[in-house]
Amino acid sequence: MKHISILGATGSIGLSTLDVIDQHPEIFQLDTLVAHRNVDGMLALIKKFHPRSAIMTDDLAAKALLTQNTSSTTIESGMDAAIAAAKSSLSDTVVAAMVGAAGLPATLAAVTAGKDVCLANKECLVTAGRLFMDAAKKHHARIIPIDSEHAAVHQALQGHDHDSVRRIILTASGGPFRLRSVESLHNITPEEAIAHPNWAMGAKISIDSATMMNKALELIEARWLFDIAPDQLEAIIHPQSIVHAMVEYTDGNVLAQMAMPDMRAPIAYALQPHLRIHSGVAWLELAMQQDLSFFAIDVARFPAMNMVAEVMRGDDGHAVVMNAANEIANAAFRQRRIGFMDILPLVERALTDIAITPVHQLHDIWALDQHTRIKTEEFIH
Ligand SMILES: NC(=O)c1ccc[n+]([C@@H]2O[C@H](COP(=O)([O-])OP(=O)(O)OC[C@H]3O[C@@H](n4cnc5c(N)ncnc54)[C@H](OP(=O)(O)O)[C@@H]3O)[C@@H](O)[C@H]2O)c1
């Protein structure tokens, strides 16, 4: 039996994970569910899945949950409780599905406890990739990616020599605005940006997909996960989201992974790597697909691509600044404080104006992250 805790249980990945777990009561036992503020969502999960414990990282939300909970599930409060649950010996597998760099402390705690970490939270690797992967090596933690592109690469790398990899190619759908004129993007609403053509995801990652910042973050994620040089990483547009990534080997063979665009496929793979459990994902009928097409990314339309190439050439702190500025700009757009076309210039300004300090330890990363958030808010005002 695998004992599983989920960080970010009420989100899109959290709910898809629970769907897969629910299909296999003979393999999986739930330990702890962690969320931030969504009390109603957590109450519904407690009622349906009966976890041993439930944690709200927001103290007021935890108080509200405690008042309304009538089950035997233990209720706890705060990020420290989430970190303790991530480390606890009561679970062997932690699904890291909080959104943003806020997920880093608890996910890193699971890594240092030597757990199997099913990683959806890409911001962990973007902000602290070197530290995170060193800790995984030191504490014998397995990091199994949930991000569909990285899960695809993970599968295509199995049984092959690392030195024989020539290139890793991630696909990008191009998001909802791939074919819109750049001029028409100025009046985009958050609702339009969140409406992704292929994937149903949380609000932040949906907007990151529309700006292509998601692919930028994923390139950095891939760099650390697969220990690969930035110039061996590429992204291309594949509007159908059927091929999730490809690995090209030095002999000219290219291994591609395909699946319907449903996160339960990579989640099932991450929960039971190599064992291939049922996920509930629809079968891929290639004859029914009208087309599988691939295009180079237009960097004039998606400047995040040039930005990430620069960031990966620089010191590690550049990625911390890019991520934190993007989190602030993404949220400001969702709150209608800035326009869609203001997001990337704000990140660009943060990268230009903020002094990049060395980031050797977690506290260096937090200091630069927090400073960037404050400065980006100032730029917005
Ligand atoms: N969705 C996808 O298909 C997909 C695909 C690949 C990778 N990912 C990655 O997976 C992660 C989660 O994405 P998502 O789409 O599932 O996000 P989401 O639907 O917005 O869910 C986010 C989860 O994180 C919790 N959370 C939010 N802010 C928090 C904070 N400050 N502290 C602690 N917990 C917090 C939320 O709790 P409340 O509900 O209580 O606020 C919720 O449970 C992201 O890093 C994303 O890039 C997602």
Give a description of the structure:
The chain is globular. The termini are far apart. Helix 13 packs across helix 15 (362-380) and helix 14 packs across helix 15 (362-380). It has 381 residues and is an alpha/beta fold. The chain has 15 helices and eleven strands. The structure holds NADP nicotinamide-adenine-dinucleotide phosphate. NADP nicotinamide-adenine-dinucleotide phosphate (NAP) is lined by residues 8-14, 35-38, 41, 57, 97-99, 102, 120-123, 147, 199, 201-205, 263.
CATH topology of the domain at 2-146: Rossmann fold
Tally of DSSP helical segments: 15
Bound molecules: NADP nicotinamide-adenine-dinucleotide phosphate
Structural class: alpha/beta
Write the layout of secondary structure elements.
Blueprint: E1 2-7, H1 12-22, E2 28-35, H2 39-49, E3 53-56, H3 59-68, E4 74-77, H4 79-87, E5 93-96, H5 104-112, E6 116-119, H6 122-138, E7 142-145, H7 148-157, E8 165-172, H8 190-194, H9 203-211, H10 213-225, E9 233-237, E10 243-249, E11 254-258, H11 264-271, H12 304-313, H13 317-334, H14 343-353, H15 362-380
Parallel strand pairs: 1-2, 1-5, 2-3, 3-4, 5-6, 6-7, 8-9
Antiparallel strand pairs: 8-10, 10-11
